[in-house]
Amino acid sequence: MNLLQLLLPIYVFFQTVSSRCDCMHKIVLLHSPEDYRIISSPDYPRTYCGNLDCLWRVVAPDNTSKVYFYADNLDLRDDIDQIVFYDHKFLIESDNVTESYSCTGERLCRYASTAQYLTIRFKTGGGEIDNYGFQGTVSAREKPSYALMAAVHKYLLPLTVLAVMLLGVIVSIVCCRRTVEADYQPHYKHEHHEEIVEDGSDKLLQS
Predict the structure, then answer these.
(1) Do 84 and 123 fall within a single domain?
(2) Is the peptide bond prior to 45 cis by the omega test (within 30 degrees of 0)?
(3) pTM, whole model, 2 decimals?
(4) What total of structural domains would you count in the chain?
(5) What do you get for the CA distance between the two ends of the chain, in Å?
(6) Distances (CA, A) of 9 to 5, 22, 51
(7) Domain that holds residue 106
(8) φ and ψ of 180, to 5 deg
(9) What is the CA radius of gyration of the chain?
(10) What is the pLDDT of residues 26-75, one digit of tens each?
C-alpha cells in the first residue's frame, strides 16, 4: 500500500467535515407571491457543527410584499444555537442591525417580516453537538396550512380551558339537579302516604 492510498481516506474525511461545517452567505430572491425556497442548517439532517454563522438575505418580489419563514422541525441546543431574524426596509450589507426575533430549542419557528427584506442568521456555539439543526421554507405568501396551524397553536390552550370550564359548569348543574330531586321525591311520597292513612282512618271511624 503506497502513501497515496493511506492519505486518501484522511483527505476524504476532512473534506466531508469541512463541507459540513462551511456556511456561505446567500442572497435568496423570491420572484412571485407563489415562489418559495428551502433553507437548512449545513448538511441537514446530519448533525451540524459548532461556531457556525450562516446568513441568508431574503428579498420579497416587491415593496408591498413580506417574507414568511416557517420550520416545524427545529432540533437545536436550547439558548446556545439560534435562528435569528433581522428586518430591513432596504437591502443592506451591514450586519449592524437590531435583532427582530429568534428561535431556539425544539419548538416551532415561524416569522413574518415587516417589509420586503429579511436576513436570517443561523448561529451556533462551541462544544459537542448531537442535534440535527433545521429545515425551513421562505416564501412571499403565508401558506394557508401554516396560517391554520398558527391559529391552532394560538387559540388551542384558551379554547381547551374554556371547554373544561363549561364542562365543569354543566356537570355541577346536573349534579345539583339530581340532588334536589333526590331530596324532594321521598318527602313528597311520605306526605302522600300520610294522606292515604288519614283518609283510611276516617273511613274506618265512620264505619
Answers:
(1) yes
(2) yes
(3) 0.62
(4) 2
(5) 132
(6) 8, 20, 25
(7) 3-142
(8) -65, -45
(9) 34
(10) 999 999 989 999 999 999 999 999 999 999 999 999 989 999 999 999 99
